[in-house]
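WARN retry 2 of 3 for item q-0093 after timeout on previous attempt; input resubmitted unchanged.
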Amino acid sequence: MNVSEQFGRLEEEMKAYLPILGKASEAIMDQEVSDYPIFIAHQQESIGVGLLIAEREQVRGNWTLHASTLEEFVTKQLIQADRVEDFKRVYKEPKDYICVFIIQEIGATFVFIPRD
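OK item q-0093 returned
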């Protein structure tokens, strides 16, 4: 299985988390925390980004999820300040898509998962 196929499979797995991701995304926007919610899906012990919203040991699935924002990604230098406008151009409408940063041993990537 190539890297593209692996990320495609991971994207499919993320669909099971859509209810919790959707609620968290709406809360981030409704509370005016950010217009750019980003969720981190990982299997590591811990990461230093975002707020924990689901631990893989407590949900049906293989992923721990953290809620974050574009602003935090810039502060933590995961997205360089000079690349923010580029990111905003590719960021999909959060009412229609959930932005997930998937971290796995094969690498890390952003995926946009349709909400319905």
